[in-house]
Fold these 2 entries.
Entry 1:
Amino acid sequence: MKKYPSTIRDVAVEANVSPGTVSKFVNGTQRFSSEVENRLRETIDRLGYRPNVVARSVATGKTRTIGVAILDIHNPHFTGIVKGANRVALQHDYSLLFVATGESQKNERQLLEMLSRRVDGLIVSSRMPDDALEWMRQSPKPSVCFGKLPDTSVPSVGAEGYRAAYLIAQHLVGLAHKRIAFLGFPGARWNAERIRGIHDCLASHGKSLSVFDVEQPSAHGGERACSRIMLVAERPDAVICYNDLIAIGFMKEAQALGFQLPKDISVVGMDNIPFGEYVHPALTTVDMQSERMGEVAMFKMLDCLAGHTDKGFAMLQPELVLRASTMRRN
Amino acid sequence: MKKYPSTIRDVAVEANVSPGTVSKFVNGTQRFSSEVENRLRETIDRLGYRPNVVARSVATGKTRTIGVAILDIHNPHFTGIVKGANRVALQHDYSLLFVATGESQKNERQLLEMLSRRVDGLIVSSRMPDDALEWMRQSPKPSVCFGKLPDTSVPSVGAEGYRAAYLIAQHLVGLAHKRIAFLGFPGARWNAERIRGIHDCLASHGKSLSVFDVEQPSAHGGERACSRIMLVAERPDAVICYNDLIAIGFMKEAQALGFQLPKDISVVGMDNIPFGEYVHPALTTVDMQSERMGEVAMFKMLDCLAGHTDKGFAMLQPELVLRASTMRRN
DNA sequence: ATGAAAGCGCTAACAC
DNA sequence: GTGTTAGCGCTTTCAT
């Protein structure tokens, strides 16, 4: 631990200029006589002066920090988002104030309020009981969300869940599947639109969809739901899972139950988390562009902060990722 | 977006008291006549006053924020750390300023310096070219690191890598393996100690160890290294990987190469990431207590901030997790 | 128990 | 170009 950090005033005194001058120099707000410039440069690194960003923040009202709230940092879909956001933030000299809202006894709303005070804007991925959304609209700080929102006053970015689901269903139908099931998580905001996508596609082929639920949108949740789906008379020959985590859990349990995958049942996930590639059979899924979503969200945020009132929804296109967990029926 | 947030002064005026009084009330620094107390309480929530934490920070010099720097947010070992740290931080009304150092063109040192200015302390998990360590020692803010450090002036927490490695080796020897290999990542700070652990154990049984390297400590790295290990005359009958990610990649590629696991080769990883359970065969590994590490690191940090100069190394005990990727030779 | 006043370190508007 | 002067919103002695 070293001596007390020097302030702008220390520099001013040492260099025989005024604090204001030092400030302007440090921020490149103005040009200087090379005389002063040199003196300043020299003093600054002799003293090892570094601006105090906190003090700067109270003076300017800007923190150059973006708050990022996500549910579960263990879900690679979310870490993808954070990764993308982090990258863009760094490029623009912003930092990320992070909170995993799933981890707290406090309610989400409270957490967001706390976060909000320390940042210039909020990027939020949450279950969002809609009152949080109302709160965001009221907030003086800009927010960006994920998924298509009921109203467009809060900008958001999402991959088109309906289309993603439709694509998967189409793929499965093309593979001649007869009985398709969806293993969803009712607590998730995009559950319904995914069901619609699948349903619409199946309906256009004269097929129906059976829907099952997990209790948790995790691998463990998928494991626990498996037997309910597999150990019945007319079991499905394909199951579409709400996300990859669920799919992976489901596959493990199905195999433990003695089923052969994809021979006995085709399984597909959604998100395209990196691990999908490493399970057996490799998981067919649809890429929901997690990392890109984080990037775009941060770009939108920077836009808001720049005053562009560009609001609105940015739609990313999902992409089918065909691997080995699906196969043609006959 | 709503009206301007009210300040401590607005409250003071409305309630006919001085700003100082409001401050003391808000911070519970003092007791008040119930008269004033009620007036204050009423005005505060009528105005919806919330303290400005940034201004408070410049006045107090404390931010109630801890910086967390990790390399790769996609590695579940690291997200485990963040998760643990986040939980403890939240419990103590601290926030996490997060940066993924692997994501930036800027060097780590610079990133840390930036972070450092906005937080009360730093929790750092990094490749750390040791100059970063020197920097931390010099820094006026407390830091805590992961792993046993060359000197003890910076507190740190780690799972005993030597012991973890020893345990694994012992397990493999007990399973009658003849030719054991280590697939390491030389860039990692704990590579050497893990090698030592394995080596010492093997040596005590009169066995030797062959060491291979990956280029990246990721699943992809493991995949790429696989053929170098497997496609040789006297291939090993067991490989210990530097981490689970590598192990998972290795297994996938080995299977793609036509090998049967664990019949042809036993594979073991380190970390115990949640996914290890879901690959096939389920990965035998050793739990390095990621989440607990994050928690303990944060506790140590809080201790430092409380002035307890408790420094030193906290050692977590690794635990063998036996699954299906290893089997007895004969 | 309450108020007055002096900062915290920095920025920004204005003067010279 | 450079200096002066107010703040930013809050905390914290020190009086009263």
Entry 2:
Amino acid sequence: MAPGEPVVVRVGSRELPVTNLEKVYWPEDGITKGELIGYYTRIAPVLLPYLKDRPLVLTRYPEGIHGPWFYAKNAPEGRPGWLRTYTYVHPAAGPTEYLLADEPAALTYIANLGAIEIHPWTGRIQAPERPDFAIVDLDPAEGATWEDTREVALLVRQVLDAVGTQGFPKWSGATGIHIYCPCAPDHTYQDTAAFCLAIGRLLARVHPRRVTLERQVRKRRGKVYVDYLQNRLGQTITAVYGVRPRPGAPVSVPVTWEEIARGTVPFVTLRTIWDRLAQVGDLFAPVLELRQDLRRATRQLEGV
DNA sequence: GAACCGA
DNA sequence: TCGGTTCAACGCTTC
DNA sequence: GAAGCG
Ligand SMILES: [Mn+2]
Ligand SMILES: [Mn+2]
């Protein structure tokens, strides 16, 4: 194929052009844009349920992981007519027309844009201001290790257990862990943020050397930051089964609490995910089913 | 990566 | 026909 | 009020 020459592919009932399939996006690993497109197209049956009806924010790396990148919120002009979008009017910033993904070809299209990361909203278009889950976002600060992060995740789990709430952890694909706590449909971002803040406050009080809520980066040294502010409209956490623009082409995957406890969280990549899925299946399935009362749990946490 | 705009 | 430009943006916190 | 933060 001549470089830059578009190739028309058929995905399901759609036909769309893809470009620069041989372009190397991960030079350390020899992973090409074509492999990225193949990944997102093939993972669609597993990934799409987690994206359905959720406005998407993309991070695009048209020259690979070491090149310049940018966020993309608005759907590109000139896209295929069958792609669905959703316009949300932000109070301050005005309207944004977001991409939606409801079929495999939509993911093929998105990957062809050079989008490595996909960040879905936690709310759906039917009720954009009602998140379906709280996400406890654990960000290890400089000087904090993976062991520290694991340890704090297990502390979060203890707290969740104490208030009868289930959380489902995933490896971020980089250094952190995201713990998804599904909630009932009447919850607001206020509710989910308050829930994560209550967990963070409790842990920072009991384990001040390990856990911090400090917003200033340089004051977090050696600790794990509980980033409760991710639980707001428009904030972005990389999708489950989404690829990261880092060496190895890691994928953010669900993990078990046991793997976190034993220190056996696997480094899963766009190439190794298929074995992982064959072994453990989709560990995140309950995230879309469970409806928990996080307001009650928050009151319980604040009462401690 | 691709559309848009002005030269 | 080309090259340059654009591609997000908000509420909360601390100073 | 401005800057830092994700
Ligand atoms: Mn994080
Ligand atoms: Mn974060």
